Amino acid sequence: MRYIALLLFVSVFTSAFSQNIKLDVTNIAKRYNAVGLAYVVVKDGKIIHSDAVGYKDLEKQTPLNVADNLFRIASISKSFTATAWMQLVEAGKASLDDDFGSLIGFPVRNPLFPNKVITLRMLLSHTSSISDKNGYFNLDAINPIKNPEWKKGYNDYEPGTQYEYCNLNFNMAGAALEQAVGIRFDNYIKKQILMPLRLNGGYCVDSLDNTMFAKIYEYDSKKEEFEAQPAAYAPRSEEVQNYTLGYTTPVFSPTGGLKISAEDLARYMMMHMNYGEYNGVRLISKTSANIMQTPVNKDAGYGLALRENKTFIKGKKVVGHTGSAYGLYSAMFFEPQEQFGVVVITNGCKQVFEDDEPVLLEEVANYLYGHLIAPK
């Protein structure tokens, strides 16, 4: 009887503690007028807390669910592309120092430095000198065979010497990945990463249950209201029907198009936090994981689709990525030595930025760290 009473006490205490956490997070979210916010805390290889506040659908007042609702996570998607490339590098099918032009099938050279090889490593670390000036939803933007304005797609510094964030880098990397494996990008990521880790998600809208999508909202400051952004989950069905393997890959947006729940993103994060392994499944080697987490450009702190961040959680140097698109803001950061991590995603808010980081997500992450990770 004492044992049962103890279990009941622990259960009631835990439930009350979780409700206090939720109430505090709700109050933070309200200050930023967040539509919805999902959050997950991991420690020592497991999820220790997860919940959501606000709405999946603002018009219908449908509550947001942390486990089932899928978000388009934006630029955190880049790390999935880089992870898939590291698997090929380990298999001896590619090298990070390969000339990227040989991987993509057309010349990739900065016209100001024509003899400097632009490598796969440079694209995955945003040190390629390629820019988004010509756009990034079509590879014609940088293909000299198809675009007479291709030279405008490069910056005026030597490849490998400087960092500039560039979405085109990863849409190109996704297309080259398709050419290397002969499988459509979305299907390959599902087969190589999502399925082994038992995660529900994907890049192709038509392959997912659209009733699970968390609607994304952008705040219109002039109208002082949120507007739904259906383009975030546009199926692109016609483009997929007319798909050219290894070239029209940006249809799936390897640079920012993955849809996944906050909890499943946290499970993927734990794989990187554990240097390539999660729940008995090893996706990449410890060596590959270290390469991804080690800055290529030390000033930027950016490795291969993962970056160091010294401000997101005060007093801690964490590794991960952020994302923003259509009004959504996402963050995934972990500390591999201390074995903790946080995922925070909002599907719309009146956002404020500080040092290029979303303040709402920072504030929630620091609150969660202080209440769930830092205490002994």
In the predicted model, the low-confidence regions spanning at least 5 consecutive residues are 5-13
Main-sheet strand order equals 3-2-1-14-13-12-11
Helix and strand pattern: HEEEEHHHHHEEEHEHEEHEEEEEEH
- Major sheet characteristics: 7 strands, antiparallel
Classify the secondary structure makeup into a structural class: alpha+beta
Q: Gyration radius, to the nearest Å?
A: 21 Å
Instruction: Report the strand count.
Output: 16
How many domains would you count in the coordinates? 2
- The assigned CATH architecture of the largest domain is 3-Layer(aba) Sandwich
Distance between the termini: 29 Å
How would you sum up the global shape? Answer: globular
Provide the β-strand percentage band: 15-25%
- Proportion of residues in helical segments: 25-40%
Count of helical segments?
A: 10
CATH topology of the largest domain: Beta-lactamase
Task: Fill in the keyword field for this structure.
Beta-lactamase, 16 strands, alpha+beta, 2 domains, 7-stranded antiparallel sheet, single chain, globular, 19% strand
Strands, helices and their partners?
Layout: H1 2-31, E1 36-43, E2 46-57, E3 62-63, E4 71-72, H2 78-90, H3 100-104, H4 120-124, H5 167-181, H6 185-194, E5 201-202, E6 217-220, E7 225-228, H7 237-241, E8 259-260, H8 262-273, E9 277-278, E10 281-282, H9 286-293, E11 307-309, E12 318-325, E13 328-335, E14 340-346, E15 353-354, E16 357-358, H10 359-373
Antiparallel strand pairs: 1-2, 1-14, 2-3, 4-8, 5-8, 6-7, 9-10, 11-12, 12-13, 13-14, 15-16
GO molecular function: hydrolase activity
Protein name: Serine hydrolase domain-containing protein
InterPro entries: AmpC-like, Beta-lactam-related, Beta-lactam/transpept-like
